[in-house]
Amino acid sequence: MNGFAFATSACFFCKRLFSYNPHRVPSTPPEWHPTREPVCAACMARINRMRTDAGVPPFPIHPDAYEPLRETEL
Known about the structure:
Order of helices and strands: EEEHE
Number of domains: 1
Shape: globular
Oligomer: single chain
Largest sheet: 2 strands, antiparallel
Low-confidence stretches: none
Helix content: 10-25%
Number of strands: 4
Number of helices: 1
């Protein structure tokens, strides 16, 4: 039987709790914060909207970023 796991923590920007795949979730770059911190889907959507409005490419988001990860990937 295959199991699944996910991480849960507060978003770096909005501080709301959310669940994510710790291997795929977007996070803050090291120049913003000394340790990489996870960013929720709603904040990433806002950030990417601001980037595209400014003519800058959006940050890529892995399709499984906010899904559980397979037990075999732990």
